[in-house]
Every structure is written in C-alpha cells, then in structure tokens.
Amino acid sequence: MIGINIKLVRVDSRLLHATVQLNWNQFINADQVWVVSPHYVEDPFIANVMQLCLPKTMKVNFYSVEQLMEQLQMKANTKVMIIFPNLEIVEKAVRLGFYTKEIQLPYPASRVMLKSLTEYFSQEDIKRIRYIQEQNIKLFFQTTPYDNKDYTIFTK
Q1: 47 has a pLDDT exceeding 90
Q2: Sheet holding 32-36, edge to edge
Q3: Is pTM beyond 0.85 here?
C-alpha cells in the first residue's frame, strides 16, 4: 500500500532529542520525523540541529498543523514519526481531521504513581485530552520502548 504510514505519534515539549532518537528509531523504523510546531517551521538552524540527532537515512521536517494535514494527503510511501510539542497543537490537528489510533506521552519527570490527571495536567489540557479521547484516540504514558504502555491514568 502506498501512502503515509504513521509509526508513532508522540507529545513531547523537548521535541526531537537523544532519548527519542536513540531509543525509538530502532523500534519504529521510520524514514522521517515530522515535528508539528508552527514556531520552528521557518527556522533552518533548529532543523539542522535536529537533523544531526538522526541517522543519515532519516530526515526531519517541520510543519504547521495545516502543513501536516497537507502532507498526510500525499501518496508518498513514507514511514513517519510525528512529534507534537504540546496537547494544544494536537487538539488543533485533531479538530482539522488528524486521526491516529493512539498518542504517546513521556512519563512525568517524577515517576510517582499518578492517581489523577490533575496531578500532572492543567484543566485546559484535561479538556484537550477528553476531546481527543472523544475522537476515539487513546493516550498513554511511555518514555522508552522498554516501558509498558500505561493507559490507566487516562481512563479515570
């Protein structure tokens, strides 16, 4: 089948960094990383720095939400990892028709057992999470591929 094959969707304010590159690349086998952040679309310096984090066989691209939606319509045979910096931009993409089965978030810095979303997310982000879930998209915590996917806090 020819088309965009989304291998992983991640929300991470750090965008593309060593943990993502070193841990995830070998497990997801993506050709490209798409960073969806309007702040960096026209910033060649950031693009060059982030490209240095990747193997030569992978390419990083920066898109606005609207550009992401255009790219997803392409017929190119491409395997991609999509990184959003925050839930606000994810919600905007979902409102414009972006769909994926699930979205990964890294565990909070303090990996204490979280009992509720309010311990980690703002009220605005909780509303975004619920909207995204209403679109039949699951969210889970997982920092590295060696961690189990943790859906529990998002189901409460």
Answers
A1: no
A2: 59-63, 32-36, 78-84, 4-11, 102-105, 138-141
A3: yes
Length of the chain: 156
Task: Summarize pLDDT for 129-146 with one digit per residue, the tens.
Answer: 999 999 999 999 988 888
The residue among 40, 35, 28, 42 whose CA lies nearest residue 12 is 35
- For 94, the token pair is 């979902």
Residue type (1 letter), 50: M
* 30, 58 contact by CB (below 8 A): yes
What residue ranges define each of the domains in the chain, with the CATH number in brackets? 4-154 (3.40.35.10)
DSSP state of 150: B
pLDDT > 80? residue 19? no
**C-alpha span between 137 and 135 (Å, rounded):** 6
Residue that has been written with the tokens 């303090």 in this structure:
110
In this structure, which amino acid lies at residue 151? Answer: Y
